[in-house]
Amino acid sequence: MPIDINSDLGEGMGSDAAIMPYITSCNIACGGHAGDDLTMQKTIELAIKNKLKIGAHPSYPDPENFGRLSMDITLEQLKDSILTQIETLEKWVSLKGAQLHHIKPHGALYNEAAINPTIAKMLVQILKLHYPQTILYAQDGSIIAALAEDQSIKVEYEVFADRNYNDDLTLVNRKKPKAVLHRPEEVLPHLSSMIEEGKVKTLSGKFLRIKADTICVHGDNSTALEIAKAIYTLINK
């Protein structure tokens, strides 16, 4: 396909196998916000069967809040948790005869890495020291993407098919109205602008430049399968 389509999987939503034929890479929950050894193994096996690129999807260690809230823990504790999560997934990926293709933070960790230099630097250090050949999935205009490129870490710029954007290219907070798009008829024009024109329409109505190497469909969206099918059709028409 001309552009990568990724989805966050292994999160217990029950739709992973159905979504996989319509994507090209997956980000597998590795024990922070969701997932355990069994779900990681099952998801990896499905990914290999569907010939998908496999990525780690580390998070704040907070399954109670699905990794969507920042935690009051030290930077060192967070770093240790993230490294353990990635190492655990990588172990199973290797044992299944595959390779770890990319790393994409989840939820609050992803959003903070976009704007918080301390969090961004810590994540880039993990990549630089432990996974220098592994690709980072990150947003255009984010602090973590800029730091990663400075450290010669390859970045694939991610856009979100089912999320609205603020004027600073951050994602609209999920607690706010219209943060999440659920209907394919909303998603497709939103996405077409990003991949065909390199512009995203923000919630305020502005059109801003944005880089799009990979498209995310959130696996926990109630209409994720419908959206993935619609995007697959759009990309391959």
UniProtKB/TrEMBL annotation:
Q: Which GO MF terms are attached to this record?
A: 5-oxoprolinase (ATP-hydrolyzing) activity
Q: Which gene encodes it?
A: pxpA
UniProt-listed SUPFAM superfamilies: Glycoside hydrolase/deacetylase (SSF88713)
Please list which residues make up the signal peptide.
Answer: none
Broad class of enzyme this protein falls into: hydrolase
EC no.? 3.5.2.9
Q: Which Pfam families match?
A: LamB_YcsF
Name listed for the protein in its UniProt record: 5-oxoprolinase subunit PxpA
Sorted alphabetically, the keyword list is: Hydrolase
